[in-house]
């Protein structure tokens, strides 16, 4: 048997990557068109993507696996935004938070189909639920670290329970953003981002000492 060359291996890797991308893009397109995730079958994805069932299962365990991969790309981008936010930077913290949330809302709107699907699937699919929970826990941990750092520096009130506060503003904020996008066409994004930013800043980071 002729040994597999490096060029052949690289070609196989590129083709596999292209196939995964094709399947992910297919599910994303179906979700963006407004189709509920629960009503999209693996067979529909296969037909739309133009691949065989064997090819599909060579890359993904099922449609939830694709959804998690799509959401993971989005999670990484949003988490990087959160980690870059510096509460000690110059300028109004509340206004900078408002700008941060305006960017978050923009990203959420651009990926609304995927985000709606993962929230839906998390209610009945254990794998998606575990991923969704871990996703928010990652943001929770990032906020908790900044609150504890600010308390150590004496800029955040010492009587703030940082763990409880981070949990409330992260998990509550996620619910609020999802609801806002569902009921607002976009005209109220700037106002919503401003209010959310001010609530985070003055409710936790710069809460008046008790």
Which SSEs are present, and which pair or pack?
Blueprint: H1 6-32, H2 42-49, H3 53-59, H4 63-84, H5 93-110, H6 112-121, H7 126-153, H8 162-183, H9 189-205
Q: In CATH, what is the homologous superfamily of the largest domain?
A: Tetracycline Repressor, domain 2
- Tell me the total number of β-strands: 0
Report the major sheet.
none
| Separation of the first and last Cα atoms | 77 Å
Order of helices and strands: HHHHHHHHH
- The CATH topology of the largest domain corresponds to Tetracycline Repressor, domain 2
- Give the rounded overall mean pLDDT: 89
- Output the structural class: mainly alpha
Task: Please provide a written account of the structure.
The chain is mostly helical and 210 residues long. It folds into two domains: 1-60, Arc Repressor Mutant, subunit A (Orthogonal Bundle), CATH 1.10.10.60; 63-205, Tetracycline Repressor, domain 2 (Orthogonal Bundle), CATH 1.10.357.10. The chain has nine helices and no strands. The longest helix is centred in the middle third of the chain and has 28 residues, at 126-153. The radius of gyration is 21 Å and the shape is elongated. The chain starts with 5 loop residues before the first helix and ends in a 5-residue tail after the last helix.
């Amino acid at each position: 048997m002729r040994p597999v060359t490096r060029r052949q291996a690289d070609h196989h890797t590129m083709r596999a990557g292209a196939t995964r991308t094709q399947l992910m893009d297919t599910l994303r397109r179906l979700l963006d068109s407004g189709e509920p995730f629960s009503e999209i079958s693996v067979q529909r994805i296969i037909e739309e993507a133009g691949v065989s069932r064997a090819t599909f299962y060579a890359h993904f365990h099922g449609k939830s696996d694709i959804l998690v991969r799509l959401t993971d790309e989005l999670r990484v981008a949003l988490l990087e935004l959160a980690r870059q936010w510096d509460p000690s930077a110059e300028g109004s913290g509340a206004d900078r938070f408002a700008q941060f949330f305006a960017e978050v809302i923009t990203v959420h709107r651009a990926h609304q189909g995927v985000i709606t699907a993962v929230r839906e699937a998390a209610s009945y699919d254990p794998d998606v639920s575990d991923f969704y929970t871990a996703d928010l826990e990652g943001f929770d941990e990032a906020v908790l670290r900044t609150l504890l750092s600010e308390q150590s520096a004496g800029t955040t009130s010492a009587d703030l329970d940082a763990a409880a506060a981070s949990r409330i503003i992260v998990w509550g904020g996620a619910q609020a953003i999802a609801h806002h996008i569902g009921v607002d066409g976009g005209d109220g994004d700037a106002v919503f981002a401003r209010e959310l930013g001010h609530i985070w800043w003055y409710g936790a980071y710069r809460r008046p000492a008790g």
